[in-house]
Every structure is written in C-alpha cells, then in structure tokens.
C-alpha cells in the first residue's frame, strides 16, 4: 500500500504547489519514504510503505536506458519467478515492482498479462510520449485521473488526491444519487462503476488509460478479457474443488508478508477461517471484533474456536455496547473512505485497524476473506425460496433481477411503465432481452457483473481506504488470478453443485478446517439475526450533538439549492431507530454522507496522524 500523485502539463510550474499539497495530505499511505521525479512536463511524488525490500525499494523505477519510468502501488507476487524467467534483463533494485519497467520495455502493453498480483501502475514512456495508467483485473488497487480543458492530466491513488489540481472541488451529486445501489436497489445503471467527485474518474478495473502527452488525447483500453485462459481441463465437481484447494493455498502463501508478521482479519466465517488454516504454521497473528453483534451471531465464538484449533495468537478487539462515533471522527473516516457507502462495517474495520497499528506495530500486511462471496456464490442462499429445489429458486430470482434491469434499460420502449400496471408478466423475456443494453446475456453473467461492481465500489474501495488510513496494507487471497480464472470457468451444468452457498469453497476447505467450521452459516460480520446493536450505534452517532452530522449534511447545496430537508431527515432517522430497521438506517446514512462529502470536498480535511479510540 503506497501513494502516487502526479501530473503532466505543458505549464508544469503552475501545478507544483498542488502536487506537494496532495502528496503531503496522503503521506499516511506511505510513511516510510517520499520521493519526487520530474522530467519536462511530467512530475510525480511517491509515498512508500516499505514491505518488500525495505531498504532497497525506492521508486520511481526505470528500464536500463531510462526511457521508461514507472511508479507502482503494487504487490507483484510472482516477481521472483519473472526475474528467474528473464534473468538476463536489467532490474533497478530488489523490489517486486522493479520488474515492471523492464517488462514493459521488452513486451509493451502485453507485459501486464504476466503479472500476478494487485497493482495500480503509472508508466511514463519518454520515447512514445505516452503515459499509461494501469489497474489489476478487479481493481484491488485504486487509481484516479482527471484531464482539464488545456489537456493537462492529473493522477492519484485516491480520488481526493486529484482535487488540489482542480479549480472547483465538488462531488458529482447526479452521478451518486442516480446510483440504484445507494438505496439498495438493482435497476438500470446498477452495473456502472461510480465516480464521487466531479471531473475525477477511476481507471476501470482490468484496463489501462493511455494519455498522449503531445495531443492530450485519452484512450481507455481493456486488457483483461475475463475469458479463462490456460486452465487445466476440469470436467467434474471434484476436479474443480481440488483445483480450488490448490490455488487457494498457493495464493495464501504468495501473499504472506516477506518481512515481519502477517495479520489475518478473522471474522469467524469460513473464508477468513480458511486463510487462517492455510497459514497456521507461518508467522501470523489474528484479530477479531468482539461486540454484542458478533457475540450474538456466533462469529466471535467461531473466530475464537478457529484460533484455538489452529494454535494462532488471537487479539480480541472489543467495542462497547453503547459505542458512539463522534461527529468529527465520522467525518474523518468518511473523508478517508471518500464514498457515500461508508457506514457501520467501515467503522468496525477502523476499530480493528486502529488496534493493529497501536498494539502490534510490526504488522504491516493484513489478509482478509474478501472476494470469496462475489466469486463463488456466497450470496446465492439468500435467493432460495424453495428448499426442495434451491438452485431453481436461485435461477428464478436472478432471472427476475435481470429482467428488472432489462425493462429499465434505455431503448426498452418504456416497457417498465407497462409492466408496473400488472401483477402478471406481460412481455416475452427474449424480446425484453433483445431490447436491453445487455442483449441476450444470461442471468448468471449479469449477476456476476453486479457482484464485481459491488466488490469494486464497496468492498475493495473501502478496505483500501480504511486500512491505508492506518498505514496498513490489506491483501485478498481469494482474488488471485488463478482463482478468478477458476470462478469464470465453472460451466452452467455445475453451477448448482458448486456455487449454491459457495459449496466449492466449503468443500475445498473442509479437509483443512473440519466439518463444524466449514458449515458455519454466513452472516454479516457486524450483526447476526438481530441488528439492534448496529442500529443503536448508527442512531447514537447520527443523533450526537443534537444531530450535528445531519444539520451539516443539510447545508450542502446542488445548483445553489439545499437538497436535504433536516426535519424530515431527523424524523426518518428516529423512525428507523424505533423500528430497528437496519437497512433503512444504512441507506439513509448514505444520503447524509452525500451531503457531508459535498462539504468536505471544499475543506480537504487533514488525515495524517488520525487516531480512533472507539475500540
């Protein structure tokens, strides 16, 4: 986890102050070393968190003749294999990222297909007069950019890192509020990756943004097709399960910290328990959240039992039953998250990361179970309404979601309005699909796209921002290239066998964890069957200081007009609290976050040195 910020301009002097302002404000992403590189109109600063090659890993990196310059917020897990394979090539230092400029020089844009890891990369090619911004296939590592009216480009590891370069620092309110996910809906545009700040774009996952320094032109190229390649022939469920077990264990070992202990976020669910089991004999330490919610759900007892079973030291991070986030802390964490999706889960994660930094400062790398649910059917059980034929229930539910999306799709002749007149199905499915932007794509492909977008905009985004606030790097063993490829290669005929309640994961980990842990029911990590603790925490936090957060959010304007009504917002918060409606409270808090982000964008609060004392 590091931080990159830079620009290219034909008038570089006007942007240097903004460059250093942004770099200083994001020093928490890389507190060990700050370096600067400048050549003609290109200028960039790199804040480094030293993990691989702690004393010999400075950036930028270059090829042998210094025509290719690279900055990378990355962990290249196969860098040693690449060095061995291309042993005659030049490598500037011992860091894992030193392979990047050399392989780019030798193989051009195709080099990225040889990388196994998580990465956001900036390459300045002096000979081609081109800057490339590149992200890993799922967008684990963030990278943002903006191009102004004069054709200057600005880029940063965080979206707010671009704001100092812009004259107007605003959120894109229409972009945010048009997002159906924000209110918990699945409708048209639910697949679109969202940008929070006006004029600031995210480099899409699995893509590269190519900027021509001569013309200021931009081209977005998708290098990752999503089509499985080089997969061994797998035909039976047992073959897929065996391949999952092999690839998962290899991924866990690849992602161990090369220096010092590795932390494991142990929720008590099968995914994090699987990571713990795979690395039980290595230099690891685990952390789990102890709250009324995790005790009720059984996650706390599951985490404790797993740590005892595998003999791994476990730190228990306790939160009080009356936990309340102070308004200033809420705003700081929200600004760190730079997402309206910030909420209870990120608050609890901040408790854990704050504890890690304070009590085990030698731990810099933390592994989590993120991504397993999205890749391997972790949410399918929620679609089951007929236990006698559960997979048929899943298929019918997902087809319904797909048709709902199709009916709302532009070009669908406003069929949704007609369908809403009836309780019966009025239109032929094949016709609706033919008119949709998705065409005849099947329901499972649609669902996978939904979950990938959810994974990118919610899980990976927030995990990066909250962990980096405490100068920690979060790694995700379930999202290695081989496991992504494996998930995409499961044929239709085996989905029911392998993907219902992520059977492939449970069966693949069964020999390592045992029947009791492998069959643990999936629950949200911060609450169980009851959500009273989290509803109370959100209510107390939003209601604190006479609803200070709500009143501040309601001062935000769109087009010169206030867009939130404080009395109505407060009344609705109180109603959700009285009804113990967690989903309603979460969705409404996101609307409050929109207003707060609008205010924070203009202020640019300081994040360096933040401490969170709620745990």
Walk me through what this model shows:
- There is one protein chain.
- The protein is α+β, with helices and mostly antiparallel strands and 615 residues long.
- It is built from 22 helices and 19 strands.
What ranges have pLDDT less than 50 throughout 5 or more consecutive residues?
A: none
Q: How many strand segments?
A: 19
Strand content: 15-25%
Integer average pLDDT: 92
> If you compute it from the alpha carbons, what radius of gyration comes out, rounded to the nearest whole angstrom?
24 Å
The end-to-end span amounts to 24 Å
Q: Give the oligomeric state.
A: single chain
Please outline the major beta sheet: 6 strands, antiparallel
Distinct helical segment count: 22
Category by helix and strand content: alpha+beta
Helix content: 40-55%
Form type:
globular
Spatial strand arrangement across the major sheet: 2-3-1-9-8-10
In short:
The chain is of the alpha+beta class. A 6-stranded antiparallel beta sheet has the order 2-3-1-9-8-10, covered by helices on one side.
């Amino acid at each position: 986890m590091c931080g990159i910020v830079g620009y290219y301009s034909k008038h570089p002097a006007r942007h240097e102050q903004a460059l250093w302002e942004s770099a200083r404000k994001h020093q928490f992403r890389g507190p060990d070393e700050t370096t600067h590189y400048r050549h003609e109109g290109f200028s960039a600063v790199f804040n480094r968190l030293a993990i691989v090659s702690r004393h010999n890993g400075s950036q930028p990196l270059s090829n042998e003749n210094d025509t290719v310059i690279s900055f990378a917020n990355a962990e290249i897990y196969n860098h040693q294999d690449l060095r061995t394979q291309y042993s005659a090539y030049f490598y500037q230092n011992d860091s894992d990222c030193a392979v990047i400029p050399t392989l780019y020089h030798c193989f051009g844009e195709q080099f990225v297909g040889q990388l196994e890891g998580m990465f956001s990369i900036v390459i300045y090619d002096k000979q081609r007069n081109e800057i490339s911004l590149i992200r890993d296939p799922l967008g684990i590592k963030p990278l943002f950019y903006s191009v102004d009216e004069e054709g200057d480009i600005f880029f940063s590891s965080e979206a707010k890192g671009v704001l100092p370069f812009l004259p107007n620092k605003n959120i894109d309110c229409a972009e945010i509020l048009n997002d159906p996910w924000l209110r918990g809906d699945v409708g048209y545009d639910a697949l679109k990756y969202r940008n929070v700040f006006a004029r600031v774009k995210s480099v899409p996952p699995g893509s590269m943004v190519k900027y021509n320094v001569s013309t200021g032109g931009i081209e977005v190229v998708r290098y990752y097709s999503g089509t499985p390649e080089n997969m061994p022939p797998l035909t039976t469920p047992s073959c897929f399960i065996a391949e999952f077990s092999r690839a998962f264990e290899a991924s866990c070992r690849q992602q161990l910290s090369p220096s010092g202990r590795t932390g494991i976020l142990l929720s008590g669910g099968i995914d994090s328990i699987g990571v713990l089991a795979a690395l039980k004999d290595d230099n690891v330490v685990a952390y789990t959240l102890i709250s009324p919610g995790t005790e009720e759900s059984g996650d706390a007892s599951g985490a404790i039992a797993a740590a005892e079973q595998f003999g791994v030291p476990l730190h228990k991070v306790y939160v009080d039953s009356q936990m309340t986030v102070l308004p200033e802390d809420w705003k700081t964490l929200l600004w760190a998250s730079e997402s309206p999706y910030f909420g209870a889960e990120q608050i609890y994660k901040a408790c854990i990361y704050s504890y890690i930094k304070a009590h085990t400062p030698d731990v810099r790398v933390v592994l989590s179970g993120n991504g397993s649910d999205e890749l391997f059917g972790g949410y399918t059980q929620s679609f089951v309404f007929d236990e006698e034929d559960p997979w048929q229930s899943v298929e019918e539910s997902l087809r319904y979601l797909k048709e709902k999306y199709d009916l709302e799709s532009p070009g669908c002749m406003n069929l949704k309005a007609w369908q809403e007149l009836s309780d019966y199905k009025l239109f032929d499915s094949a016709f609706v699909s033919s008119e949709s932007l998705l065409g005849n794509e099947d329901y499972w492909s649609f669902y996978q796209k939904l979950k990938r977008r959810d994974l990118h905009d919610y899980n990976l985004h927030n995990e990066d921002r909250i962990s980096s606030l405490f100068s920690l790097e979060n790694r995700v063993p379930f999202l290695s290239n081989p496991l992504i490829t494996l998930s995409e290669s499961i044929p239709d005929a085996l989905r029911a066998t392998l993907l219902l309640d992520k059977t492939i994961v449970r069966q693949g980990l069964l020999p390592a964890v045992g029947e009791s842990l492998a069959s643990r029911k999936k629950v949200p990590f911060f609450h169980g069957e009851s959500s009273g603790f989290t509803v109370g925490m959100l209510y107390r936090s939003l209601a604190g200081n006479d609803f200070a957060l709500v009143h501040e959010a309601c001062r935000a304007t769109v087009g010169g007009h206030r867009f939130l009504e404080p009395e109505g917002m407060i009344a609705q918060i109180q109603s959700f609290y009285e009804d113990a409606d967690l989903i309603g409270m979460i969705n409404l808090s996101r609307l409050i976050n929109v207003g707060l982000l609008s205010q924070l964008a203009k202020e640019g609060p300081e994040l360096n040195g933040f401490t969170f004392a709620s745990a």
